[in-house]
Amino acid sequence: MTENTSPPAAEMPDSPSASTLDPSVPKRCGLIAIVGRPNVGKSTLLNALVGQKVSITSDKAQTTRHRITGVRTIEEAQFVFVDTPGFQMKHNAALNRTLNRTVHSVLGDVDLVLYVLEAGRFGLDDAKVLSLLPEDKPVVMIANKLDAVQRRAELAPWLKSMAERRNFAEFVPLSAKKESDVTRLFKILKPYLPEQGWFYEEDALTDRSEKFLASEIIREKLFRLTGDELPYTSTVVIDKWEDEGELRRISASIVVERDAHKGMIIGSGGERLKRIGSEARQELEHLMQGRVFLELWVKVRSGWADTEERVRTYGYE
Predict the structure, then answer these.
(1) What are the boundaries of the region G1 (predicted)?
(2) What is the C-alpha to C-alpha distance for residues 61 and 259, in angstroms, rounded to an integer?
């Protein structure tokens, strides 16, 4: 399936500048992990903190599969956020074991942990994640999706019960979709950053390549447009990438485990695959500020998520 090009989208806003920083003020920089069970809004929070999409979102669990770094520099402080896969509670598949290793490796490196929950909710999976958090790191509890809480008065006893579970450094109820809440969070986190030089340039947004972001955006559209029909083990591989001035020619394969899954993605008369390609291309053009020619294929690779070697072949750490 080939997707035609269209004019480039409007320019993205510039990231905050630190060019007027007082040289007598010491710089701060730190690694901040964002952890929690699947579907608590970790990727949405990361994108809000960075100010641009660097991690994909969908209602399907296990959307994030990689260690994804987002960077935001505000005045003298550089916040380096690491979005992680949700902890996988079933370890039978090679993909799940790989995702959990990614989470554990992140937690060993960071200066601060953001433990994300849905405000007012604490289930068994949340408890399992909490039990795995390091005791020697400050942990800020983020009560996300505050906008979905109908009775705010019920939050006080819930927060009290959470305080009894661990000595959290901070409690921050918020909605990741509300700009003022995100601004407030930066002010809370800043004192926890060590005084040291920045890891990235002040206008950096992520350490991930355009090729990686392209595969993730295609995968996001795949999950959003197939809903619960498609197993989360489906993945996307970039087969070819060519730059021709401001035009990018991209060929990608959507990898599934069964022939039936292939049919779900292609849809009647190829309409669903065409829509996946169209929506992915539009977002890629917006992100990359140039024209994109996107070609998508669907391939069946039975049992790929159950084999460590094949999981690594598809780019999982």
Answers:
(1) 36-43
(2) 22
Residue 171, pLDDT above cutoff 80? yes
DSSP tag of 28: E
**Looking at the domain 28-192, which fold is it?**
Rossmann fold (3.40.50)
Residue 126 belongs to what H/E stretch?
helix 124-132
192-224: pLDDT as tens digits: 999 999 988 888 888 777 888 888 888 888 888
- Higher-confidence residue: 39 or 174? 174
Q: pTM of the entire structure?
A: 0.65
Binding residues: 36-43, 83-87, 144-147
Q: Which two tokens stand for residue 6?
A: 């269209």
From the options 3.90.1150.10, 3.40.50.150, 3.30.300.20, 3.30.70.60, give the CATH code of 2-6+208-313: 3.30.300.20
Sequence ranges of the binding site for GTP: 36-43, 83-87, 144-147
Q: Dump pLDDT digits (tens) for 40-90.
A: 888 889 889 988 777 765 444 444 444 667 899 999 999 999 876 555 444
In angstroms, the Cα distances linking 261 to 1, 226, 243 are 17, 10, 32
| Phi/psi at 246 (5° precision) | -90, 0
